[in-house]
Specification:
61 residues; mainly alpha
């Protein structure tokens, strides 16, 4: 299995391994996009940056 380089690739690999439905993967993409947009507009440090896929996948499923 190749090593994912970004949160979206990791979420895709994680959804494939866990056999999540397509709807859960789509919702995790929405959560990740909202979080990354929020982070770009804020000046606070990003505590979830390397692990943003895990909470997004958890929320989506």
């Amino acid at each position: 299995m190749p090593f994912p380089k970004d949160p979206f690739a990791f979420a895709d690999a994680l959804a494939d391994v866990l056999r999540l439905p397509d709807e859960a993967l789509a919702m995790s993409y929405l959560y990740m996009n909202k979080y990354l947009r929020f982070h770009r507009s804020s000046t606070t440090p990003n505590p979830l940056d390397p692990y943003v896929s895990l909470p997004a996948s958890t929320l989506a499923s």
